[in-house]
Amino acid sequence: MKKASLITLVTFALCAVATIASAQVLKQPNIIVMMADDMGMGDTSAYQDFTGNADENQVYTPQMERLARMGMRFTDAHTPSSRCSPTRYGLLTGRYSWRNRLKHWVLFGSQGDPMIESDRPTIASLLKDHDYRTAMFGKWHVGLRYRRSDGDPAAGWEDADLSKPLHTSPLDHGFDVAHFTSRSHLSSGPTIKDGKITLLRGPGHIDGRFVTGTTGSKKGLVVAGPSAYILEELGSRHSDNAIGFMTNHVGDPQFRWQPFFLYYPANSNHGPHTPDTSIGGIPVDGAARTESGEKTTIRNDYIYENDVALGRMIDWLESTQDPRNPGSKLIENTIVLFTSDNGAEVDSDIATGPFRSHKGSVYEGGHRVPFIVAWPAGDVGDGDAGSPGLSNEAPIGLQDLYATFAEVVGTKMPDHRAGEKGGEDSFSILSAFRGQSLPDRPPLFFNDHKEAKEDPAVMAMRLDSPRIGGLLETGKWKLFFDASLIRSGLARPYELYDLAEDQWEKENLIDRPDLKPLIAYMTEKALLHRNSGGHLLAEFAPSERIVFDWTKDHSLEGRPVGASIMVPDSDLTLNMDVSYISGALIRATFDLNERGLGIQHGQSGDVDSGEGLRISFNRDVIVDSLGIVAGDGICGGFYQVGKGARLSIYCVDADIDDKDQSGVLSDIGVLRAGESLWLSSQGRFGSEDEGQWRLRTLAVRLLE
């Protein structure tokens, strides 16, 4: 071969590699997800044409308008819950929080037991597995675990030593970098007055695993200086951290060839309203204006803080070269997404828009939120802030981001049939980002309803124009179920609205005779999706359930451990052993009474003193619920599928939280043949109180 030909061949090969590399880069966009706290659709002028707010009432948010003109604005976007902790869990994991333990409200207490299992993928870990560098700045509020002075995991806030590195933090859930507050900003740190701490409700600033302001003593925190927890300085602190992370990323030879993921859950505009003086040199406190140019409220200043922080990131992206795409700015191949964690916290038609109620409600005002996204290189808008922008009426949820980002990076969703975890309730909405409709999306669920008369753990299901018996039931149907659906897996519908005709949810159609088939269909659909373990499991879950109820079946009474139960008219066999935390089998017999199944071995017939039940089947099953009853005992301990992560036990009549999170265990999913489900009375981390309870019911679905 001639030298010239060899050079030509090498040059061609290098060009081909470069072309392939360039194509791969465009498939791996940078991703920024900014989420406001407690912001309704009426809290941004980007939706003024939709909400109908008057100029003298509408807070002016020019940067949110700018992003909407650059990309796609959604008018039917929803949070999975009407409060912050369950929404954050849903966004990060692609899964509803009530499948874990949070049936309503928020993660309570100064520690808040970690909600996300150690082996559960998040959007951060998903992207990290695809070579992304990941960071979060802002409000976490899905749980931490501190350490005691001896270095062991703390049982709670009381025995936490803030001078020790955290046992569990965002770094355990896919983030490389994390500077954050544990909860809402007022409850995340100390209240400082006249140079003294007057109230200590949290650790203040946390950097990765370390409490930034520790004095080195157990609960000692600084009261002045850059590490002090000052509420009015959070806006600039988080914004500076975000800009600093991106600047360091593209300037560092080690990282600049990687895409980055930035999760920015702002503390604003949750009460108390504490706007910063300025962010990046732009005034904030007192700077918000209405569309008519008038000075407005301190709450609107706090909303405007989000607008300034968003605009600062867009400015930086537009002015910074993309090291992976020479000649292009970073804005071209970066997904920029802005949304909120629930509706406005104020009961105001201006803040909420044309929807009923607000934060803490399953009516639309509690969970319909702003959602704006742009990605020029991915055909999500054109990136031109001078254009009118695009709008989409497709119904979407924040839990959909997991599957959407999986499609963005070109990876398959986990194999749930094989027992893999991840994004069980997530549905890719990438096509909707590009202007298409979503005719085949699964139902949307929303929970936590302060208007409920007896129990706020209410859930509503949204299903558009279903086909029933070959006929299309046109409408945007929203059916409310009382708390028995979340807590017990039983469906009792009590309100029905057609949002296509009644977006204010004024006319309850539940008693209309002609809608009985629709209600029956939606009720059956709700039961399947709630009890099967996820929307994606519902695709292959059989409708028939096999229920073991040991309050009625006493056939195991007095039998030794190691019992096998043959299910009539089936080849399914349930095997049950008893073991200590060490895994050693013990000599015992089963004890049954009106509360269920226990162990006769020691002082009580309950499962206690380190005892546990190991359950397995000879066939693959979906374990859709376990009913554990504390009675006069203690709800505590852990459960574990195979070698998976341990999760805290809660009961149908008690819970480990100060708020009522009681209900059936519904976080199990697929249990493979021969794999064990371990229910132990021992504390999950060994530092908590032991449990004392009985197993009442077990419901499974047999997989073919």
Tally of contiguous helical segments:
13
Distance between the termini: 61 Å
Radius of gyration, in angstroms, nearest whole number? 26 Å
Residues in helices, as a percent range: 10-25%
What's the β-strand tally?
Answer: 34
Q: In what order do the strands lie side by side in the largest sheet? A: 9-8-5-4-10-1-13-14-2-15
Q: Beta-strand level of the residues, as a percent range?
A: 15-25%
What does the average pLDDT come to? 92
SSE class: alpha+beta
**Sheet with most strands:** 10 strands, mixed
Overall geometry comes to globular
**Low-confidence blocks of residues:** 1-25
Structure, explained:
The protein has 704 residues and is an alpha+beta fold. It is built from 13 helices and 34 strands. Helix 3 crosses helix 7 and helix 6 packs parallel to helix 7. The termini are far apart. 54% of the residues are buried.
